[in-house]
């Protein structure tokens, strides 16, 4: 017989803490290893007015700051996070290089793509460090976990060359103006983009904070 027990913890945090910092604090409180904790969404959100922020349902990743989740309406309220205890499973996966060489990698399903790339470097050197990893034809971001992408035992992933051509990025602000679209290069830095926003819309360069919530969504300015 299995019994599911729901445990509620209250953790004191700072606005600059990241989701991974939350995991470290939980580890210290109840001894569950950081790598076994999954925080991927808000379990509940504080009440909002007539115009709740559209980003409230987006996926949460370890690198995100709590301040980015608590912008404006959330800044003085408590957040409730959905935390899962996941025991990592060992996988053997194949990674095909652009030269059609197949690498066999032992991994855990809780690994991020960044961690997988480190394992590939241990096997084949750093020659693939700038390449993207794709699964079922879709490039995966560095902070995606293998289990989130549907990677399982004996799955095959690909190392592909990144497309560094031009792109258009859409920005949305919280002050009610129309979204801003900028034509940028793939290698453009955040500082360069902030300067472009200042030059095109006179937005204060030093005060800009860009919040990215994934491919296909807008980048929010605060």
TrEMBL record:
<dbReference type="InterPro" id="IPR029071">
    <property type="entry name" value="Ubiquitin-like_domsf"/>
</dbReference>
<dbReference type="Pfam" id="PF00240">
    <property type="entry name" value="ubiquitin"/>
</dbReference>
<feature type="domain" description="Ubiquitin-like">
    <location>
        <begin position="91"/>
        <end position="166"/>
    </location>
</feature>
<feature type="domain" description="Ubiquitin-like">
    <location>
        <begin position="167"/>
        <end position="214"/>
    </location>
</feature>
<protein>
    <recommendedName>
        <fullName>Ubiquitin-like domain-containing protein</fullName>
    </recommendedName>
</protein>
<dbReference type="InterPro" id="IPR000626">
    <property type="entry name" value="Ubiquitin-like_dom"/>
</dbReference>
């Amino acid at each position: 017989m299995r019994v599911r027990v729901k445990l509620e913890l209250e953790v004191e945090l700072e606005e600059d803490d990241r989701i991974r910092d939350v995991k470290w604090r939980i580890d210290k409180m109840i001894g569950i290893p950081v790598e076994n904790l999954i925080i991927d969404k808000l379990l509940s959100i504080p009440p909002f007015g007539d115009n709740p922020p559209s980003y409230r349902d987006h996926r949460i990743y370890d690198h995100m700051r709590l301040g980015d989740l608590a912008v404006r309406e959330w800044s003085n309220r408590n957040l409730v996070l959905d935390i899962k205890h996941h025991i990592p499973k060992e996988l053997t996966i194949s990674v095909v290089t652009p030269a059609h060489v197949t690498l066999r990698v032992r991994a855990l399903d809780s690994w991020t793509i960044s961690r997988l790339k480190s394992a590939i470097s241990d096997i084949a050197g750093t020659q693939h460090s700038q390449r993207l990893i794709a699964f079922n034809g879709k490039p995966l971001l560095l902070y995606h976990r293998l289990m989130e992408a549907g990677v399982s035992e004996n799955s095959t992933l690909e190392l592909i060359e990144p497309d560094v051509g031009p792109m258009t990025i859409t920005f949305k602000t919280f002050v009610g103006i129309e979204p801003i679209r900028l034509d940028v290069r793939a290698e453009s830095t955040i500082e360069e983009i902030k300067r472009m926003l200042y030059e095109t819309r006179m937005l204060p360069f030093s005060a800009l904070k860009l919040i990215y919530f994934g491919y296909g969504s807008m980048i929010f300015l605060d």
